[in-house]
Amino acid sequence: MNLSWSHQSLTRRRTLAAATGLAVGALVPPGPALAVAAQYTNPVVWQDFADIDIIRVGDTYYASASTMHYSPGAPVLRSYDLVNWEIAGHSVPVLDFGAKYDLNGTRGYVRGIWASSLAYRPSNRTFYWLGQIDFARTYLYTATAVEGPWNRLTTINAPYYDAGLLVDTDDTLYVAYGNTTISVAQLSSDGRNQIRTQEVFRTPSSVGTLEGARFYKINGQYYIFLTRPANGQYILKSSSGPFGPYAMREVLLDLRGPIPGGGVPHQGGLVQTQSGAWYYMAFVDAYPGGRMPALAPVTWTADGWPVVQLVNGAWGTMYPSPAVPTPPRQVTPMTGVDTFDGTTLKPRWEWNHNPDNTKWSVGNGLTLRTATVTHDLYWARNTLTHRIQGPTSTATVQLDHSAMRDGDRAGLALLRDSSAWIGLKRDGGATRVVMVTGLTMDSNWNTTGTGTEIASAPVSDGRIWLRANADIRPGAPRPGTFSYSTDGITFTRLGPAFPMGNDWRFFMGYRFALFSHATQALGGAVRVTRFEVSTP
To answer: Each residue of 122-133: pLDDT tens digit?
Structure first.
């Protein structure tokens, strides 16, 4: 796996960074009843949440991540102890940035939500999300609760690439951004406009590329936290104000990470606990699964530089758990069963591009009516995705296919730029369960293969269980396998193992994906009555 991206151009490893912004002053005195478990294990989340931006508001920690072409975008994670996390909502409810995000004549693969920033403004008790889209404009969304509703506050006609939003102690809004040349912009008091922008740092050629800004004020000093993709982390410090001048120091370089076969922990952000301790949440490149958040404690030198605490010269697989107040409740698991009750999808789900909202519904299961006539899954709207839990996990779907029509295709995919699926084909009034592989894209994310059926079996009843098992341990292509059942108890393997590729260039890792599309005419549907992600 090629994780040395320093020779890549300014194109994709804008890996999205995130940036952050809660200004931090003096250390906070300890709160009540500190809960200290023995140890935690990295990665703290073995799911694909890249370019983490992390903040604390009161006794609650929040993190944002990049999602590219998935909708809704920019998930907000929540934790009370920095170790156990849940998905609380999304900052970008719909990717309303052009027709390509609707799969309308063009496609938005590997575009969309890249490096973005999450901040909290105490003066108006409001959360802010800021990110640039398509290197054209920067968008700012706000909400008074991370669950939403999130609303677009403004569009700024300048792309703040890999931006970090800082809410200063005097309530001024600043943005640090850029690739190699780092700039700082000041926003108007309402956050709607740029007041000024200025270059504050130019990366030395000996370092190469720096990007992925986070912006902090800590003990009166201004810090811009930057990544050298994908093997280093650096920090800039200014004692003279947000516009510098800045001095630079290396935080880590070529550091051994906590996931065997994975990359160097980098990017991400710094956060301070209620008792004054500091932590760095980075991510680890761990394809085919994606980029996994990892947490390490940080100390500070006497002259104000952060130092990551290592274990035997490496980012630790285990550390003592943070001393934090007893959590008010357990967080909602990111795995388990979903029967699609209620009126909305749970926040663990994201669509591949924006959905056609007239073609799906929840309540008494998830109904997917065909929304596209195509032979290409990558063009099919209303494909619903779920992150894969590492190191290995299994998705099982109970599917009612009695309303499928001739030409319809529906099932469960392992979705990325090289994909495979198990599902149903209805043709000539007959339905078969099939395994299809060979769905591929080129490096410009154009389809090069729409799939080849390599195994099948007849089915008669209108109900079937489909299963996909995914091994996403990094370091080599890993197997995905498919099976089916007619009773939900005995499963039959279908087709050979599918090798899940570990190339980084698609950025997003493999996902489980539910789909239903037509190849002849719209009108058919399937109903998912139960979905479960389980681990060994």
So the answer is: 999 999 999 999
β-partners of residue 328 are: none
User: What span, in angstroms and rounded, lies between the C-alpha atoms of 188 and 294?
Assistant: 35
| Best CA proximity match to 70, nearest among 371, 361, 360, 415 | 415
Distance, in Å, from the CA atom of 405 to the CA atom of 520, rounded to the nearest integer, reads 9
The answer to whether the CB of 332 falls within 8 A of the CB of 486 is no
What are the backbone angles phi and psi of residue 365, rounded to the nearest 5°? 95, 175
pTM above 0.90, yes or no: yes
Q: What is the C-alpha to C-alpha distance for residues 249 and 306, in angstroms, rounded to an integer?
A: 9
- Please, are residues 412 and 421 in contact by the beta-carbon 8 Å criterion? yes
Task: Say which residues have a Cβ less than 8 Å from residue 508's Cβ, sequence separation at least 6.
Answer: 48, 50, 67, 68, 69, 70, 110, 290, 416
- Count of residues in the chain: 536
458 phi and psi angles, rounded to 5 deg: -75, 150
d(CA 533, CA 393): 7
Say if residues 165 and 142 touch (Cβ distance below 8 Å).
no
Contact 274, 325 (CB under 8 A): yes
Integer angstrom CA distances of residue 132 from 9, 188, 268 = 18, 18, 17
CA neighbor of 484 nearest in space, from 535, 411, 419: 411
Chain centroid offset of residue 161 CA: 17
The pairing of beta strand 430-441 with beta strand 418-427: antiparallel
CB atoms within 10 A of CB 497: 15
Q: What residues form DSSP beta bridges with 427?
A: 430
Answer for the pair 59, 204: CB distance below 8 angstroms, yes or no: no
Nearest Cα residue to 15 out of 81, 108, 110: 110
Calculate the alpha carbon distances from 298 to 248, 250, 272, 280 in Å: 18, 14, 9, 6
Whether 264 contacts 257, CB under 8 Å: yes
| Residue 59 token pair | 């006794």
Could you tell me the end-to-end alpha-carbon distance of the chain, in angstroms, rounded to an integer?
26
pLDDT tens digits, one per residue of 291-329: 999 999 999 999 999 999 999 999 999 999 999 999 999
